[in-house]
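[agent] plan:
  1. take the single chain provided in the ticket
  2. run structure prediction with default settings
  3. attach structure tokens to the ticket
  4. add a short note for the reviewer (M.T.)
[agent] executing step 1
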Amino acid sequence: MRALLAPLASLAFLAFAGAAAADPVTIAPVAFSEDFETQLIEDFGEREGPVLKSYIERALTSALRNAGADVGAPGGVTVEVTLLEAAVTKPTMEQLSRQLSLDYSGSVSVGGAELVGVLRAPDGRILAEVNHRRFAWSLADTSLGGSWGDARRSIRLFAAKVARAYRSQLSSAELVPA
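[agent] step 2 finished; step 3 output follows
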């Protein structure tokens, strides 16, 4: 029994040590471009703004944690994200209420999103910039996971790019103040 517990204890220690060594990352509040903010209010509905911000924050948190970051801890790197453009795959509630000819099940379009992110060092230096744009190419390429199906796919891919940029900066030791 003791022979089995010793390796398990070692594995638990290594897992804890890895978690304790995670570098702090703060995700700044997500911003929208002026053009998208206008489109959000006039077309998609204001209630969609918090939905998109939540998708972005959750995707970034997950990707950065998988890259070894301690997301939400004070200090360290700050990730600033701006959603430049997004298009729905299925109509939003606001669109359905304004355009009676739309049908949530039958109305499908190519959606996606364009985002830009900046990773900043604690001293304000820009460590990396990440640009990502992905829209479905055709209806056959569309992700039918709700109104923002294609946009969520784009957001997940963007978050993975941000995490890779973070890991790259971390491994190049640029995060350590000189």
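[agent] step 4 note for reviewer: The longest helix spans residues 149-171.
[agent] ticket updated
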